[in-house]
């Protein structure tokens, strides 16, 4: 693969900063032919919620994209005190559809490109059955371990929004803080060199602590419950009216509100299951609306669009 | 010339646990396929790594064996016309079978004479037959969970290449959207290039050169050697762990040990916690000194060889450090509040929405343990009761609640906290063992206190579970009810404890009722319990009908059911038994067909005076039954009921029963006589029912029931 070689030759010394790792990944996947996209504009728990994954994995059309996703997991916050746990971290997400037959080799090549000399490490693919009950999605794949440390989740999507998927998308989710810690030889995310001049702490520690106060102490559960109801009604109304992306925005908002309620301990065990089922129902509605829309559009990416392989 | 065969399914990394069963299946499927195709062959074996499943067969014949097959055709009467000429039916059959009409033979069958063709199957070349057999074998492999990746078949993970060689020839096996060739690949990182194999015999050596040890057994012994060597370098030995060894064998293509260290101070944590931190996610091996104390070292088995050990060591140590520090954080934090506070905070953990919190459950377990101790082991009452109070405290601990690897240590963590809090050793041990047994081959709790607690824990979960409407259906046991039931039976039987579980369950139901928990529900436990006992009897080799007969009358005490079943099995060997059953069934049938009110006194006609009986046979049966009943009661009242002797007494009733049926007509026209005779039969039947419901017993083969 000539693109791959071009990208590989660009790699030289290991990246010294967090942002340089991102740049290298962008470079690598751009050379591979991916559309480089930007994060979704609302709060999501993972890059999978970005429409560039959730919708594009559906239906027959090919798709190759890569993007950074700031991921919000309110209940994972530790006021910046735990060296590895944050309520807002970054994922680097790559989706390849259909999954190429050499996809694992390409992935390993991307690790070399960000300065990991693989023969000097132990790289292991540890079985992982991935499932997102809120998105009605599941897949099989691995956690990729580098010397015992999980650095990536790799999933072959089998279902999304409750729909079986064919062709199958390969989703590669890099845990970039972990990788950066390893490359920089630091043990706390807070100590990561973000740019040549600033560390992660300089940039985000105050925000992390603030968010933890909000997530665990200051958020307003009755208000959030009310928001959930309203967002849900809005999502269902828009999706039934065929406005796919506006409707999906509100599905994603519901999911985040649910996460906030959970962080606050405001959701009981039974409510939890029922609420997840409500989000899943909306996700299914969104997936169905998207499939219908693309069909009506005549599946434009099947007609030799630049994304086709 | 027979030639060796190689078939390799090259895939992306399979889950370690899938590998051994897949290799066993591949071996079986290949043996069956080759036999069915009449291809002679030499020794056959399968080998594999996470990235490949391979079949190696020596000396596979070049050609199928010839054979003659007999095919039956149309009836002779339609095959020839009146003149003896072959009809179209005969001609068509001959053509289809590929033989001349003149070669057709005749075969006599019970339905008349038919045409027979002897068809000569000439063996086809192996090269034409093998691809189909190999493809079918690959496609028939089954896994606990499968996926698709290109729309051309399902497998545990994507299949990326196939190699199929018969001698030097490639077999074009088609499967998963691939066509087999001679190209395989070495280690993913250390020798990723494609490699052409000239012949099957090169396979193992060629892969070894490319950093793949393809034989599982060789990898396993290599890991053992690496472990021993690495452990010796720090003055210890690996902590023996067969499961971990098996798993790691199937995680790597080329094993090499890397020794790491961790901070000494973590050795003050409980040993199971430290070992779990190494083993659960990381799959590192713990090391111990000759005195069996843990070393502050571990061995990680990397996949690969050569450079980088220092780098890998640094990485693996960092991960383990984080896990051990988590554990230490939990360990220290958990002890600040004390055990009683944890018992209290169980009130914040929902056990089941209809059954209240874990604190409620613990209260019920405490009451049940007290009750069980009273009947089974009064001396153990105090300690068992204390252990019951504390047994779930660890569920409120950070160590278990974190949901991390230490969550698997429930019970063990609780015991460690109890020990650290100065609880007596009996209490600590009971907490430690009360989750035992989890499976059919698990050890049972060793101490009396642990045994009582294990029983109470399971019975509370069962009775509560059925009240809450949980179900066990088919092979599904989502709430572990079946496992809990089996655990109770194993404990009672193997420890020879006499407990009527049905009355314990009724007592427990009362506790639930009093607390107003899950009211109105709760049917189903009885049927479930009878099923569990039946399945235990089946495993003990008791035939179905004997088991049914024994369970039907008093299913509660498994040891007692087993004793009755064994006694029935013994008496069934007696030559008189079938005859006795004939009479018994006749009595049972009459009782069943009798109109309501015809059976005088619910089986209590013993007050009848002998002179009231019209026939001698009737009077005799009355007397004999009365005596048998008294004898049976005596044998049943003993501390260890003697069911064998009781049954022998019942067997002794046979002549009286036979004589009775011989001499009298039960359904006499006189209602009074009829009632009296039916009442007598009812008394006989009730006497039998003291031991078992003999109507479940099936007639021995060759005998006819009346």
**Count of DSSP strands of chain A:** 8
Number of strands of chain B: 20
What Rg of chain A is obtained from the alpha carbons, in whole angstroms? 20 Å
How are the strands of the largest sheet of chain B arranged? Answer: 2-3-1-9-10
Q: Helix share of residues of chain A?
A: 40-55%
Overall average pLDDT of chain B: 91
Shape of chain B: flat
CATH homologous group name of the largest domain in chain A: Bira Bifunctional Protein, Domain 2
CATH architecture of the largest domain in chain A: 2-Layer Sandwich
Outline the secondary-structure elements.
The complex is a heterodimer of chains A (309) and B (706).
Chain A: H1 2-10, H2 18-32, E1 35-36, H3 51-54, E2 63-72, E3 88-97, H4 103-113, E4 123-132, E5 137-146, E6 149-160, E7 163-164, E8 170-175, H5 176-184, H6 200-218, H7 221-240, H8 244-263, H9 269-296
Parallel strand pairs in A: 1-2
Antiparallel strand pairs in A: 2-3, 3-8, 4-5, 5-6, 6-7, 6-8
Helix pairs in contact in A: 1-2, 1-4, 7-8, 7-9, 8-9
Chain B: E1 3-11, H1 19-36, E2 44-49, E3 52-60, E4 67-75, H2 76-79, H3 88-97, E5 105-109, E6 112-121, H4 126-139, E7 147-148, E8 154-155, E9 159-166, E10 169-170, E11 174-175, E12 178-179, E13 183-185, E14 194-196, H5 203-209, H6 216-232, E15 237-238, H7 242-249, E16 255-261, H8 271-279, E17 285-288, E18 294-303, H9 309-337, H10 339-345, E19 350-352, E20 356-357, H11 358-376, H12 381-390, H13 398-401, H14 412-420, H15 425-433, H16 448-467, H17 481-494, H18 501-515, H19 525-539, H20 544-553, H21 558-571, H22 577-593, H23 616-637, H24 643-651, H25 654-663, H26 671-689
Antiparallel strand pairs in B: 1-3, 1-9, 2-3, 4-6, 5-6, 7-8, 9-10, 11-12, 13-14, 15-17, 16-18, 17-18, 19-20
Helix pairs in contact in B: 1-4, 6-7, 8-9, 11-12, 11-16, 12-15, 12-16, 14-15, 15-16, 16-17, 16-18, 17-19, 19-20, 20-21, 21-24, 22-25, 22-26, 23-24, 23-25, 23-26
